[in-house]
Fold each of these.
Amino acid sequence: MFGTITPDMILAILPEISLLVVLAIVFIVDLVLPETRRGILAVITAVGLAATFALTLLYANPGNSAELVWGGMLRHDMLAYVAKLLFIFASFITVLLSVKLDNVWLKGEYYLLLLTSTIGMTLMAASADLVMLFLAIETTSIPLYILAGFMTGDNKSTEAGFKYLLFGAMTTAVMLYGFSLLFGFAGSSNLYVMADAISAGAVPGPVLVGTLVLVLLGLGFKVAIVPMHFWAPDVYEGAPTPVTAFLSTASKAAGFMVLVRVMLASFPNILADWQLMLGILAAASMFIGNVVALTQKNIKRLLAYSGIAHAGYALLGVVAASELGVASVMYYLLVYVVTNMAAFGVVVIVARVTGSDEVEDFAGLQRRSPMLALVLLLAFLSLAGIPPLGGFIAKVLVFAAAVEAGFVWLAVLGVLASIIGLYYYLIVLKVVYLDQPKSEEPVPVERAHGVAILASVLLVLILGVIIAPAYEWAIAAAGSLF
Amino acid sequence: MAFPFLSAIVLLPILAGVVLLFLPPKNHKLIYSFALAVALVTFLLSIVVYVGFDTNGPPFQFIEKYDWLPQLRISYHVGVDGIAAPLVLLTGVVIFTGVIISQRIDDRPREFFAFLFLLASGVFGVFVALDLFALFFFYEIAVFPMYLLIAIWGWKQSREYAAMKLTLYLFIGSVIALVGVLAMYFNSGLYTFDFLALQNANFSPEFQKLWFPFVFFGFAVLGGIFPFHNWSPVGHVAAPTAVSMFHAGVLMKLGAFAALRVGIMLMPEGAQFHMWWILLLTLVNVVYGAFIAMTQTDFKYMIGYSSVSHMGLVAMGLATLNHDGLVGASVQMVSHGVMTALFFAVVGMIYDQAHTRQIPELGGMMKIMPFAGIAFIIGGLVSMGMPGFSGFVAEFPIFMGVWADTPWIAIVAAISIAVTAAYILRAVGKVFFGELPAALEGHMHDIKISEKLALGILCVIMIVIGIFPSVVVPMVEHGVEAVLALVGGA
């Protein structure tokens, strides 16, 4: 059914092939090695991901062309390309952060699940067909359910995995129902063929809006926006911290890629309807996320609520439904992923020493490790949207997109919400810089962890100061949708 | 190509800040010397820009322009006009003197100076920015370090509250202004953030009337405009000495400056439409600020409120939208910057030794630190607007400008001069003269040579401007003419 296989088609799935090879190697090595020497698995996975990143970067760039490959299942375009790089990077950092994490890092299945999930994400970003999309989403999610509950000895982790699974399965089912309606009415499961049919009026308006709600329920769950956000704080808190980092960044970004593609490709007919709908969800996410974050005592929960708010900001770009809008979402996600990786990196390191991820245990971190404190400072300020860090540019871009599209009220709400955000970020920084530490002992940093947070935080700075190259990517990715 | 003076001024402090973080944390002497050297170089560079500014030349000089985000027509575009050049020099002076008197900082000095320099870079950046995006970028860089500087090194009793209050106020202001600027970006039809291009954008009167208040007040919050001023005295008081100097001396000017640059110059019709009631608000600033200052018993609060009053004069001068008012406002920015930096420096020196700032508990300082006493009196004379000092050169044109339009406001505002004289003289009399209270006996000693140098520099500037206004006024007039050409006033 694919016709002849052309080099282009191979290049389109080069990242997936490479990831699969890494996965196979990890699988075999895991079988062969005795338990005590399995630390090497992390190295193999990390090197494999780095190689995949390099391969993708060098060879899988589609340039300005955007074509449907593999029988219309996938689309080889800039959006997918940038997204894939982002997921592979996030996965790489996650592996580094997992090093020396008790009960996790010596288990081969941990890396296998992580890699499988990454493959799912890369496919999600490229899916051009509802069937492919659903498979990709499930390939991403099922390993994540297990990863969230990976620490079986820890009740919180078990609960997290279970909760995530239940909510995930339910919303996926609802979304699948939406997909089936779309397929039934439009007569094709290909997003782009479907889009033409919908434009031609194949689906009655009210049904289309109803379908949209069903699809949004599923995708909203993936990106954790209000009101599909309830799972996030519990799951984030319970999951092993590197997994939380992965969940809150890559998985969220993958959800956004699909959201952007599906919304713009399939529902242009009812643009005004979904713009308003998403606008309201964005406003609710920004406010509820930020306000509830104010009361959090656990830093992982705090970051979960902050993530809900950030999904709200990113949603502003989707609402704008313009080229600038999509570009701003892409830029936002790039920044958000690297920023959160840096923040969670510090949480991983500190939690290893203090054995807790309560905010109060970060007291006086600055005296114990000035560099860790600085990384956390930069990451949080980036989240708060302060220059010269990436978060500032990202926020300006999404607000600009909203203003350009005539959603000034949303931009103003976003601005007000971000002030609330600033408050709790400052509270944490206050604890880090001002409060007295319980002990003055320096916090040791594993080399792998150091590399992970350094790479992330440098990218946060670079994305904040040297904006043009990354923006070029973002705008190219956006261009591939229009 | 000519040496990029402005970029050097903007980038040097931030780079120095990064270097500072890598110096050995225990070697306080090295850290201090490095900071001082950087501050000195920055100061010298700002003198070069000031002296090199040609008052017969084009409105903007020392221009540099590089692409930053060309896809959205954002560029790194800097240059100074006759209004900005003196403010760049002011910043150079205050950072230099501020570092001099920060020798006593012994808790994490690396971080202190690093954040202070980050702040300085932001301030320089705003004064020289000719691209609104760059202006915002630097504006927020300038505002943020204040939080840490106050929260970590500030006065224990109120630092957390003050730092948070200040940061939130200023951020709300700046992001509201940001939305206004985004509206300008899209509404101009030019899709550019370039200041010089937007000057010719001809926004419709309706647009200007709607958006002017957002932009003007967004920035004017930092200028301490009533009723958004009450972060300011609290912040001044809680901040450590050098930060108070920088804050009141320079940072508040950012607000007034940006309100002028982005608000008035880009939306002149909006400015004319709204200015009458803004003028009334500034009147409240001036008079109410002075009265509140008079009722304070805390020395630092007194100066904090006097800043509200004197910054009110800046805003009042701007609100006249005429030649005299604008010239006065611009000179007042410099004059007040130097004067208030001096005030806070002296208060800091006294507090470091006496450990109290309550005016009734102080006395007889003239015998112990005569140099500081005289410096404070000179500052006081500036504050009262005495002829022969910079305050007169600044305030006189402001009152003339206000009189030309609405004489009754000038008359009411003049009350502040008398009130200022009252509280300054009372403070001078009580703190510097009289008997040294028994509790302070033996605890006090004269200030260091380096501190005298810092105070001396500040005093000289105020006197030179007072006696030879021509060192600054023609330059400022050069800048104001360009503003008037936009506003269409006389």
Amino acid sequence: MDFEFIVEHIPLYVEAAELTLKVAFIGIGLSILVGFLCSLIKYTRIPILSQIVSAYIELSRNTPLLIQLFFLYFGLPKLGIAISSLGCAIIGLTFQGGSYMEEAFRAGLESVPKIQTESGTSLGLTGFQVFRYVVLPQAISTCVPAFCANIIFLIKETSVFSAVALADLMFVAKDLIGIYYKTDEALLMLVAAYLIILLPISVLCSILERRVRYAGFGN
Amino acid sequence: MQDLGISVLFQGNNFLRLCAGLWVTLRIALISMGLSIPLGLLFGMLMNMHQKIIKGLCRIYLEFVRIMPQLVLLFLVYFGAAKTFGINMSGEMAAVIVFTFWGTAEIGDLIRSALISIPKHQYESGYGLGLTKMQVYFYVIIPQIVRRLIPLAINLLTRMIKTTSLVVLIGVVEVVKVGKQIIDASRYTTPTAALWVYGVIFIMYFVICYFFSFMAGKLEKNLKY
């Protein structure tokens, strides 16, 4: 184990980790947005639109991110649509993440008993008020665990982006292995980088899950 | 059809080659799944034991698998093992090891929660009938768990099939690699081949995974009791 080599290349990893986190952050933010909108469409059963959303969810959940990226990065330029690797990464992550977030949100929305809506309405609240003050808070508290799992899943998925030439952690590790043949060191740093990024998030998520459990009934 | 790059798929045996590539992917997923189920069953039972050390070790294993991206695990096994221990395994072998490692943890966790969800009186009634601990597990508990787990296991299988697309990055010749070969071979004759080949691979994965998740959903409805 060559520790000098490790110390020397830490900045490279930090830079890559920043990029990874940036992409993950934007991608997750957008997928929450997409997921929320889609779950609303599915929940309110808007005709046509909800069928489109269902089709999107099936398509996105049943295809690997890597293939989606390849299609975006290598396939689409043949139609004259060239997207940078960063753009591909964000679009891919949003496309994949949106459907996972939608499932999480919808499960939360559907878990709120109908009585709740009815009681709200009978108290004289409007449809929007019922949704905003009665359904939404309960739905969000139930979907936190699934939501956290999705966030970790999506950050893990970013490792695939090295395949479309985005200089993320995986890409740096592959580069170092290729140039210096320091496989052990590069891989060790790679594992360490992912642990440093994901372990705190995972711990935070389990704390959050424990906190919101009190929001539900019967606990 | 002259201008359409789609014709590249029907030249020679290109389509058959893609299907053969897809079979490599499926084979890896199915073998790993087959290995993960018995190992996961053991792991799940281990996690339910009352010894703190065993529980702690299981927890670490589970968290590690959860946190590490599968691609990193693949690199660790494929390149790490070759460099550190001098073991030169094929990419396919490495993939099976990684997916089994991952699947065991996932299935183990599912089994642990299923074991907890089985009412206590089921165990007690078993003991009351004079069965040994082993017998209670084999004749009373496991049959009930398996029924609950089938849909979840199929879901995991879908995820595995999707994730096997990563093995192209450690040099296994599977559907994506075959696709690349076809694109490279027809670079001058059909420049738009990439669009069609990746499009077809996209649809192939969709069809297979959709089939499995559809089955899982159906079973989930049928097996409810």
